[in-house]
Amino acid sequence: MGKLAGKVAVITGGSRGQGASHVRMFVEEGAKVVFTDILVDEGEALAKELGENVKFVKHDVTNPKEWKHVMDETESTFGAVNILINNAGIYLGKYIEDLSEEEFRKVINVNLFSVFLGMKTVLPSMKKAGKGSIINVSSINGLRGMVASAAYDASKFAIRGITKTAALEFAEYGIRVNSVHPGAIQTPMIETEDAIENAGETYGKAPLKRVGQPEEVSKLVIFLASDDSSYSTGSEFVLDGGVTASN
Hints:
The protein has helices spanning 17-28, 40-50, 64-77, 101-129, 150-170, 193-204, 214-225; strands spanning 8-12, 32-37, 54-58, 83-86, 132-137, 175-182, 236-239. By secondary structure, the protein is of the alpha/beta class. The N and C termini lie far apart (40 Å).
């Protein structure tokens, strides 16, 4: 029996990259999964591949009405939600002087406002389930700053804060809330020429001397989603090959 047998999970940004890895491994561990994304073709293909314990829902994570729809679809298909993975996110590499207000707001909306909406909307369902686990995906950029990354860094630092507040507020319902802070992970987000060069330079100097793989993040997320982490809440879990160890 898998670590997540009998549990119902919602995973945002699940069509590719880290999100798709989470979806696959959650199913392998026995969960029933509703995953969401704006990437419809990739999402539908993944759902078809994984079978009856998975459902894909097109979803703009910045839209409150669409969050309500996701929860309704999940409960009607699989039942009350035990696990929420706020994984959806975007990156924009620009210096502050070149960053427009619209660009800044877009990154904050997708990366941070969506986390607020997800936690707020899932809460009634998790109360019905009797307990739950929420994992908010931040970044090592939520622990330290990086040049040309103001909007992204602001959103990822804020995820740390809202995670701790939610952990305090939701504890009485048996709901745990933690944040995950990956470094460079081999996903489409870092596969531009500049990002690969920067990641290779940084992570070649890291103690483990490599970028991470999506499956390595998924294994940590499964731990936090499962009862194995029953005494962990309001905490930050870092996967960065040792990059921040000397900071």
